[in-house]
């Protein structure tokens, strides 16, 4: 559904607030328009703009907007996605499929976000086809807020977790869309191979390129199963540092300024749309008070369609005619 912007609404409908000039000002363009008339026109246009801002609320993303997961595995590949079952734990209602060969140690998990997300967690299990959410284990800090872009972090060190070469494992992302209470689930299936000499068969971006990245502390993070949290997610409050033992790409800092902004906004408890609506409402109240004051000052007369103080008509002799992005490290596939 298309929503007028505030400026479009003001331009298209401000004629409803138009005040015809008095005859004396039509006759002689050299006579200045009284300040209160200009003020009233300005107030009317501001009122129209504020009213439009109050009713124009930005629509947030819904899961049905997406044909692929809002946060997608770039590496390793995901098992699949259906938006109708994305809330079904533990893997969004998609059965396991072809498994990707994956290094037992030193692997990357590369993700692509299509929209703003909240409470993102990356989990793992040693089960080939898990049927319960609690079969999974956490190993890194939760991501409280992340915007559209790319995110990359180290995978679990499966060798240190007791896995053997040849074992199957399943990775899981759980996440929330901004402003949506329900969690969504998305899985990837892997088979562990020797790390030595391993090269990913696909190219992928491994770096943190987002305008917002707010990572929880260990105390705030989700802890599930045999938690092996080694803080391998980005550093606290969005300072990212992703390392890799394969390929040429490395992660980079997403920027402290952006992360500080994310922390401030996430702690305010008021969305941008709500804040805009509050601001517009305050503006409308102020304008209403100005109009009331203008009425009692006799700048506005209601009833006869006359605005402003009455003046004697002054006629003037003569003619009265009218007047994608460079510099992003990419891990390349090797033959």
UniProtKB/TrEMBL annotation:
Keywords: Cell membrane, Glycoprotein, GPI-anchor, Lipoprotein, Membrane, Signal, Transmembrane, Transmembrane helix. Signal peptide: none annotated. The keyword NAD does not apply. CDD domains: LPMO_auxiliary-like. It is found in: Cell membrane. Residues 220-258 are annotated as: Disordered. It holds the Pfam family BIM1-like_dom. One of its GO terms (cellular component) is side of membrane. Residues 225-258 have a biased composition (Low complexity). InterPro entries: BIM1-like, BIM1-like_dom. Residues 69-210 form the Copper acquisition factor BIM1-like domain. This is Copper acquisition factor BIM1-like domain-containing protein.
